[in-house]
Design brief:
By secondary structure, this protein is an all-alpha fold. Helices cover 78% and strands 0% of the residues. It starts with 13 loop residues before the first helix and ends with a helix.
């Protein structure tokens, strides 16, 4: 959040939320990227490693929030707060994933039903086919926006679990929904802007596959060239390495922006900035 000359933190617009996240990320880059590296390594270990990985992401968020409210913690102190909730981080991630999966299934069914008359329109001639194609694209964009809207409403759950340590998993999900109520469009914009900033780095990880294009062009199913499979294997290996490196940079950035958004939502809904000002003056 931006800080005015009196030292008060206050709610800001979408662009500034992202800017604050960038500032938080840059200021603590060494600490956050180091934690992200550990998180990604742990993620390679099934079950326990997944829980540990998600817990470390929560630790990054807690460190960022505590810095924003002028109550900084060390990485060790933050770890002491989130470690007892290790399995809760895994449980809530599974629960949110299950909820979003159910929502996506429901949306797919509704979209399929709505698409039926649109598909029949395509059989009425060239004009009907063109209109049908446009309507299909419109439906795709509408349902994609709805999916992102639901994702945005659940976006803060892990941060809530790390910062508000008295919350249980289901309570953290409900609280994320509550904090983003009335701000869903803003949250979506922050979500999309953050993703677009990271997109060039994400695309970079796919570059190795460009070198396999000549092998695809020359591929023959009747007489397959062993070099084709070698190229695919090497490209996939390079992709995974690059993706890991890219994630070390993008994961803490994602958490930093989320932290700035969490603070902003609490300021707007609960007057957190006013509460902090009272504490300073009392």
């Amino acid at each position: 959040m931006t800080i005015n000359p009196t030292g008060r933190l206050r709610p800001v617009n979408v662009g500034n939320v992202v800017s604050v996240g960038i500032s938080l990320y840059r200021t603590n880059f060494k600490t956050y990227s180091g934690l992200a590296f550990k998180s990604l390594l742990w993620y390679l270990v099934p079950v326990y490693g997944w829980a540990r990985s998600l817990m470390i992401l929560g630790q990054i968020g807690r460190l960022g929030f505590k810095e924003m409210v002028r109550e900084p913690e060390t990485a060790k102190q933050a770890l002491g707060k989130v470690l007892p909730r290790l399995w809760t981080f895994l449980g809530i991630a599974f629960l949110v994933g299950l909820i979003q999966f159910g929502i996506n299934i429901g949306l797919s069914i509704v979209r399929g039903m709505v698409s039926i008359p649109v598909l029949f329109l395509a059989r009425t001639g060239e004009a009907g086919a063109s209109i049908s194609a446009l309507l299909q694209l419109l439906l795709l964009l509408i349902f994609l926006a709805i999916q992102i809207w639901f994702q945005a409403r659940f976006w803060l759950y892990d941060l809530l679990l790390a910062v508000e340590t008295d919350l249980e998993a289901t309570q953290a999900i409900s609280r994320s929904w509550q904090l983003t109520q009335g701000s869903s469009f803003r949250v979506q914009l922050v979500f999309l802007i953050t993703y677009m900033i990271m997109l060039p780095l994400i695309i970079l990880s796919f570059v190795p596959f460009l070198f396999t294009i000549p092998y695809f062009a020359a591929f023959s199913s009747e007489n397959p060239d062993p070099a084709f499979f070698s190229a695919i294997f090497l490209a996939s290996l390079a992709f995974l390495v690059l993706l890991f490196v890219v994630s070390v940079f993008t994961v803490p950035f994602w958490q930093s922006v989320k932290t700035a958004l969490y603070y902003d939502c609490r300021s707007r809904k609960e007057g957190l900035d006013l509460e902090l000002k009272k504490r300073k003056t009392s």
